[in-house]
Amino acid sequence: MVVLSQPALQPFSVIKTCKPVGLFSEIPVIDLTDPHAKTLIIKACEEFGFFKLVNHGVPMELMTKLEGLANSFFNLPQPEKDKAGPPDPYGYGNKKIGPNGDVGWVEYLLLHTNPQILSQKTSIFQENPQIFRSAVEDYLLGVKRMTFEVLELMADGLEIESRNVFSRLLRDDESDSCFRLNHYPPCPELQALTGGNLIGFGEHTDPQIISVLRSNNTTGLQIYLKEGTWVSVPPDQTSFFINVGDILQVMTNGRFTSVKHRVLADPLKSRMSMIFFGGPPLSEKIAPLPSLMAEREGSLYKEFTWFEYKSSAYTSRLADHRLGLFEKTAGQ
Ligand code: GA4
After folding, report:
1. For labelling alongside 109, which of 125, 212, 213, 225 has CA 20 to 30 A away?
2. Which fold has domain 22-317?
3. Given pLDDT bands bounded at 50, 70 and 90, which one contains residue 4?
4. How many angstroms does the Cα of residue 314 sit away from the middle of ligand 1?
5. pLDDT at 10 over 90
6. In testing the pocket of ligand 1, which one of 110, 177, 306, 312 has its CB within 8 Å of the most ligand atoms?
């Protein structure tokens, strides 16, 4: 942990740093139009819980339009942005992540994807809420369509009879999905003082089923490999990066890995990312799919609802192993 003495830097003295790591060129790249996509997706989810998606069919204009509007929001004077906060957990947040003391070099807007909840929160765009709201909705329409396809390829690849076993949870009107715009401002002075890279968003796994990230061309995203090393993901503003979330790990009885990841801030360039987190309805009971449980293995997890898991996540710290509470111990 960095402890800085300069008074101006005091509020940031708890933000952690870490040593830079090299760019990793072996991230699996899946072409959504490839006839072998489903097999490659399964392999990537088992090995990394993470892959890059190309030829995804989402028009670039949807991304650039939203990125432009997000930039204008984050460029507003601080008191204006603060009118959209503090997050409850939805709304504008600055440096504080979640309710339990996590901090990072990041400001963000967290939105629910349900149109009614979304519209309550987008009234914060005093200048033109309608333009922002429709840019978010258009973007989400494209990203959701693509995510359903990816989830259906996963079910196919796992030879599950009903192709929609995962996608139906996101297609449901009650789906508890959310959308996050993260802005990591550059921080040259702080970076020079600390000698390392500032943590923008600390290490964690995503609680939901699947996360779909698009960022500008600034580096920062790192994933944790099974062998125990952090690697830096080369950015690509034309592609999406897909993360397996905790719920998908449970539904596949541990066959897929919920990937641990974090984001470092860049000293000179601002990083902007937009992430769709696909979650099930709150009342959905989560358990491994029967066909994915080896005969004598049984479920590795206790059954729980998404509401229970989400509530428990909000009592945790970012880096906690949240699934730990729901794992079965010997004899259970
Ligand atoms: C991580 C993934 C998503 O960004 C998020 C985050 C949420 C928040 O920022 O409100 C959490 C975090 C995330 C997991 C543990 C809890 C909840 C902050 C935090 C410390 C929106 C989510 O669903 O879980």
Report:
1. 225
2. Jelly Rolls (2.60.120)
3. very low
4. 7
5. no
6. 110
